[in-house]
Design goal:
Elements (H helix, E strand, L loop, with lengths): L1 H9 L25 H10 L4 E6 L30 E3 L12 H12 L6 E6 L1 H4 L5 H12 L2 E4 L9 H15 L14 E5 L8 H16 L3 E6 L16 E4 L4 H11 L2 E4 L6 H15 L2 H15 L6 H6 L3 E6 L1 H13 L3 E7 L9 H5 L5 E3 L3 H14 L4 E4 L11 E4 L17 H30 L13 H6 L7
Parallel strand pairs: 1-2, 1-3, 3-4, 5-6, 5-7, 7-8, 9-10, 9-12, 10-11, 12-13
Helix pairs in contact: 2-6, 3-5, 6-8, 9-10
């Protein structure tokens, strides 16, 4: 009885010390966030000829499936040939007390000497990292022996999520890879590069994003020499050393700073151009810094002249006064809030499926406007989403795979990482002006299709809950207009 009363007292409505708001001491469901190693694999997947060796158990191979064949239908992390781009040392706890450096070095040499390999990266699971193997020395030795670049990615799985894994991989590249130019060489500021683009899959949405970003910057008079990352070969990363201006995107700020310092380029921190307002601000920022304000405005005017007329009917008839919800990473939610407002709708809640370290000023910026839930457990996310969908009468929710199935009464657009059920087999951006139009097109079509599905269900049920109830109109007559009730 004492135990039972103690449990009840600790699971009361009052907040408990150390327990995030909205959770209880009895909530043992896992957290939603994707792991650090998954983020490393996302980055490896974005470099066509890079290979990764993970010091850890064989089960690490299964983590590739968060990307391969699920989020990215064009992923090349694994191969039917058996020669995968992610390998592991199959480390077992009984071997952890012995020296493993020779074995690691041998595996790295085998990977580096393969004819398809341009770069090998080495990282580790926490069980291996804590034993203190000298990974950086091993990488230097293998690089000298094979004349291939060998990059060490610190194993931070205990302290980071997938956003950290992606950012740390780019940071390791920025610190360790060889650049062909030095800070002493003069750089043209109109040669620009982007560092911190999140190329989380090789499908048409991200291919089209980088193409559109390049096109807009080129149209205003710059030359885009490199984008980290964009699904390129490893050797193409070196083109960034030609840039006189580094445009830093939020997915890898530290890497951008290191690249700018090593190459002598000017650093410019930018927001993600997601939505009309954000894209316009981005182009004006770049234009002002490079003396291309007039050219930037011309690009903006031309793009808006193409985009805005397409919104004439859908804003009042599809989106006006609607309420949206969001589940996903913190770097996309600002743009989505502005997109909702551009459409005459309102963002009613946002759940961030990453740790609070990535929020920046988001909590302060959304205070009093949008309720936030950060790094929730599975159960806490379910309660948070369903409460707001019900109370705020949400009509549409944009969510990564974590929110799928949580809001049956709202239309769902799966978006962000990971997306298991929404893919892009053709070029369909979501950033920039073109991306805004494509994204809004998806929102509109999904909303209308959901309304149609709901109306069919309602008509099938009839006025008293069944198609065979007295007074019910058969669905086929209703759809054809044969009943005459709507005349």
């Amino acid at each position: 009885m004492k135990v039972q009363s103690l449990i009840q007292s600790h699971s009361s409505a009052a907040p408990q010390p150390g327990v995030p708001e909205g959770e209880s001491l009895q909530d043992f469901t896992p957290r939603i966030l994707q792991t650090y190693m998954v983020g490393v694999f996302v980055a490896i997947n974005a470099l066509r000829d890079a290979y990764c060796l993970v010091e850890g158990p064989d089960c690490i191979h299964m983590k590739t499936q968060f990307v391969q064949g699920n989020h990215d239908w064009f992923s090349t992390l694994t191969s039917v040939s058996g020669y995968h781009r992610v390998a592991n040392t199959a480390l077992h706890p009984v071997h952890m007390t012995a020296s493993r450096e020779n074995q690691i070095e041998e595996m790295l040499i085998r990977l580096a000497r393969h004819e398809t390999t341009s770069c090998v990266m080495l990282t580790s699971m926490p069980m291996a990292f804590i034993t203190g193997a000298d990974y950086e020395r091993i990488c230097r030795d293998v690089a000298e022996l094979t004349s291939k670049e060998v990059i060490h990615i610190p194993g931070k799985s205990l302290s980071g999520d997938w956003l950290d894994g992606y950012a740390e991989t780019l940071l390791a590249l920025a610190k360790q890879m060889k650049f062909s130019t030095t800070p002493k060489q003069a750089k043209d500021p109109k040669k620009v590069a982007i560092v911190g683009y999140c190329y989380d899959r090789n499908e048409g949405d991200h291919r089209a994003n980088v193409e559109h970003l390049r096109a807009m910057l080129t149209a205003m008079g710059t030359e885009v020499v490199s984008i980290w990352l964009e699904g390129q070969d490893f050797k193409d990363l070196d083109k960034i050393s030609e840039a006189g201006t580094i445009l830093s995107f939020p997915y890898a700020r530290r890497a951008a700073r290191i690249v700018a310092k090593r190459t002598g380029a000017k650093l410019m921190e930018c927001e993600l151009p997601f939505g009309l307002d954000a894209t316009e601000r981005w182009l004006l920022q770049v234009g002002a810094a490079l003396g291309l304000e007039a050219q930037a405005q011309e690009v903006i005017d031309a793009e808006l002249a193409r985009v805005v007329p397409a919104l004439e009917w859908i804003i009042p008839f599809v989106f006006q006064n609607r309420r949206f919800g969001y589940v996903g990473d913190p770097h996309l939610v600002r743009g989505f809030k502005e997109i909702a407002e551009t459409l005459g709708a309102r963002l009613s809640f946002a759940a961030i499926t990453d740790t609070a370290t990535h929020l920046g000023t988001l909590v302060a910026d959304f205070a009093g406007q949008v309720p936030l839930r950060v790094d929730p457990t599975t159960e806490a996310l379910r309660k948070f989403v369903q409460e707001h969908v019900r109370d705020d009468k949400i009509s549409l929710m944009v969510s990564n795979n974590s929110g799928c199935g949580l809001a049956e009464s709202a239309a769902l657009v799966e978006f962000g990482f990971p997306s298991m059920y929404a893919h892009a087999l053709y070029d369909r951006p979501f950033l920039g002006f073109k991306g805004f139009l494509a994204f809004v097109d998806t929102l509109a079509n999904t909303s209308r299709q959901f309304e149609l599905a709901q109306s069919i269900v309602a008509m099938s049920a009839g006025p008293k809950g069944g198609s065979d109830a007295p007074g019910a109109v058969p669905m086929e007559k209703c759809l054809s207009g044969a009943c005459g009730d709507c005349a």
